[in-house]
UniProtKB/TrEMBL annotation:
InterPro entries: CobS (IPR003805). The keyword Transmembrane applies. This is Adenosylcobinamide-GDP ribazoletransferase. The gene is cobS. It is found in: Cell membrane. Its EC number is 2.7.8.26. Keywords: Cell membrane, Cobalamin biosynthesis, Magnesium, Membrane, Transferase, Transmembrane, Transmembrane helix. Pathway: Cofactor biosynthesis; adenosylcobalamin biosynthesis; adenosylcobalamin from cob(II)yrinate a,c-diamide: step 7/7.
């Protein structure tokens, strides 16, 4: 068996995860491959923190009589605020790069530009609409289902990043966040984290009923499958991953999880 990482390295991994994937005031003290590996393995924990924060705001609004729609808007908006829109920006840039139809080098240059093109705008609109619509359906059903979905989708989004950072997935550029985390996570480690998160999500679903065990686990697996399809397409299209691609994967996974949880 591989021995567990020393305590200091685990701390650096947590710092890396929260310092790069959220606006929480956590200082990244190490920016090397080992810290990046620990950080990407801890990425779902960032999802727990952001999802719980979003669920609390949504529930406060719901209990104050704001209604399920406004609670849903909060559930989608809080994670965006707590990441400075990092993943949404990455989604828009990835959509512009893919939609351009240009060779990899030109597409990567388009993605690096500060403005958002038509493909990015359209993608952002429909993704956010889907997230809000799914959450509104869930919060209208019950506050517990809405809160659970808010947390599960946030965790599934960051779990997709763990899997995307696995060994064998190359970086499209030699610099940037994508290059820093590409290929740092051993495949066995990524799979182990995915199984643990899926199991815990199913256990959380059990609190709402037997049917929710399968539905919650299916939501996580469907989120990972959708993110994997996008990852493979981007890898073929751009020659690897970038920070923008990671953002696109996170939003794709979150939206897929919410849609699955809203069904039935």
């Amino acid at each position: 068996m591989t021995p567990p990482p020393p305590h200091g390295l685990r701390v650096h991994g947590l710092r890396f995860a929260f310092g790069t994937l959220s606006v929480l005031p956590v200082k990244v003290s190490r920016w090397d491959r080992e810290a990046a590996r620990g950080g990407m393995l801890c990425a779902p924990l960032v999802g727990v923190a952001l999802g719980c924060g979003a669920a609390v705001v949504a529930l406060v609004l719901l209990f104050l009589g704001a209604g399920p729609l406004l609670a849903a808007v909060a559930g989608a908006a809080v994670p965006a605020v707590l990441t400075r829109g990092l993943h949404l920006d990455g989604l828009a840039d990835t959509a512009d790069g893919l939609g351009s139809g240009k060779p990899a080098e030109d597409a990567l240059r388009i993605m690096k530009q500060s403005d958002i093109g038509p493909f990015g705008v359209i993608t952002l609109v429909f993704v956010l609409l889907a997230q809000v619509a799914a959450l509104a359906r869930l919060y209208d059903d019950s506050w517990a289902r809405g809160a659970l979905a808010t947390v599960v989708s946030a965790v599934a989004a960051r779990l997709a990043l763990t899997l995307a950072a696995r060994t064998g997935v190359p970086a499209a550029r030699p610099e940037g966040l994508g290059a820093a985390v590409a290929g740092v996570v051993p495949v066995r480690g990524a799979v182990a984290v995915a199984l643990a998160v899926t199991g815990l999500a199913a256990a959380a679903g059990a609190l709402l009923g037997t049917y929710d065990i399968a539905r919650t686990a299916l939501a996580v697996l469907a989120a990972l499958a959708a993110a994997e399809l996008l990852l493979r397409h981007c890898t073929r299209r751009f020659g690897g991953v970038t920070g923008d691609v990671f953002g696109g994967l996170a939003e794709t996974a979150a939206t897929t999880a919410l849609v699955v949880l809203s069904l039935g």
